[in-house]
Design goal:
- The protein is mainly α and about 120 residues long.
- The protein has a domain at about 10-70.
- Helix content is about 40%, strand content about 0%.
- The chain has helices at about 10-15, 20-25, 35-40, 60-70, 90-100, 110-115.
Length: about 120
């Protein structure tokens, strides 16, 4: 038994093979995908040269690279919402504001829903 490389991210997440792409182009009346693209994409937005892209990575390699990028971030302390904790909200506010969906949703239950509890 030979081992097939199954860790190729693009093989698992890009839905069509080259043969399937050519078949789709043929069914649309084109000899190749390149001919389909040449017909569909206007010349004024095409790049004059091919993109200079790095070699594809496996999913594991991509995750390691992304993790290395994320490790460069400086984690700062968020102060949004600070100061509200350790306070006692009066029950009348809890009941009439925070627990009342009329303040935070546009949904109004119909009478049958209300009567069912």
């Amino acid at each position: 038994m030979t081992y097939r490389g199954i860790d190729a991210f693009q093989q698992r997440h890009i839905g069509t093979s080259t043969a399937q792409q050519e078949e789709m182009a043929n069914s649309a009346g084109f000899d190749s995908v390149a001919q389909l693209i040449d017909t569909a994409v206007p010349d004024n937005i095409k790049l004059p040269q091919a993109l200079n892209l790095p070699d594809p990575l496996t999913e594991r390699e991509a995750l390691l690279k992304l993790r290395a990028y994320a490790d460069q971030n400086k984690v700062l302390r968020s102060c949004i919402g600070m100061g509200y904790y350790d306070t006692t909200t009066p029950p009348v506010l809890l009941r009439n504001v925070f627990e009342n969906p009329g303040w935070y949703t546009a949904y109004t239950p119909y009478q049958p829903e209300i009567s069912q509890g």
